[in-house]
Amino acid sequence: MRRGKLFVKLQIKGEDSFSLIEKLHKRGVYAYDITFFDKKTIISIDFVDYKKFFAISRNMCYNIRILKYYGKLSPIKTLFSKCGLFICFNLFLALVIAFDGYVGKVCYEGDGEYFAPQISTLLKSEGVTEKTFLKADLKELENKLLQEIDGVAYVSLRKSGRVLTVEAYRSEPKIEGIDLKKEKIVSTVSGTIKAINLLSGTAIVSVGDEVRKGETLIEGYVLKDEEKQLTYALGEVEIEAKYVFTYQSFASGERYKNRACLLARENLGEKDVISCEVEESFDKDKIVYTVMLKYLVTVS
Questions:
Q1: How far is CA 83 from CA 93, 139, 185, in A?
Q2: I need a labelling partner for 84 at 20 to 30 A (CA). Which of 37, 62, 260, 263 fits?
């Protein structure tokens, strides 16, 4: 469908809808007829950008409702809705493939270039390459790309003439709300306090303190005129923790020390390791390597 033929009027409820509109414009989705109200915003977008709009706004804290469709093709859109958009789209897609199935070139738009290696590999496994005839269903390919490639929020495959265009966009990080009911923040590990970023409440510990797992770090209160006033606990505390790992071997040397350190890291998992110390000792005919890993943990 060409631009300018069909538009969608949307109602957006939520804080700072201007940021959403700004993000849309950066991604090439332009809003028209923008009207700001006290707690809502009304905008219109081109129907060509319909799927892209919802992909971009998916993880944002907005309540979005479609008000109406308008434009030259709005009667056809109503007809499509009644007969089933999926059936009409696939019928149209089948006709396009039948009359113009040759792929001379594959182009990437949006964040598609970033995902090009993964997308190209998946398309190739489905028999979609340059200088071949397209036999696969584009809608099924879109769904497969969304399911199998991590980090993709939106993908569109468009065939125009001999060019297959792949348009993709990355997922936006999910915005977590602030927990206003958290009474305290407790340590998830035992270790040494390295840094404190206090946003609300009172820090019970100081940098350099030794803490145990389960010990309170930040409490949800503030002192005013020597009296406690309740609030919520919010902040981040960076803790340096230690992990001890033992590895036995029948041989000694730097090679085995490095192996012991590597195994300790793998056993600890994905942590921000800042140092690895290895001590060598003997137990009868075996050599024992004791590994001490120091790593950072952020508690919030």
A1: 16, 19, 55
A2: 62
**Taking residues 219-231, what's their average pLDDT?**
88
Say what the pTM is.
0.43
What would the two tokens of residue 293 be?
């890993």
**Topology classification of domain 96-170:** Ubiquitin-like (UB roll) (3.10.20)
Backbone angles phi, psi at 126, to 5 degrees: -100, 10
Read off the pLDDT of residues 1-35 as tens digits, 9 standing for 90 and up: 677 778 889 988 877 778 888 888 888 888 888 88
Q: In what order do the strands lie in the sheet with 105-110?
A: 105-110, 163-170, 152-160
Fold of 7-75: Alpha-Beta Plaits (3.30.70)
Task: Answer yes or no: are the C-beta atoms of 133 and 100 closer than 8 Å.
Answer: no
Question: How do residues 193-202 score in pLDDT, each as one tens digit?
Answer: 999 999 889 9
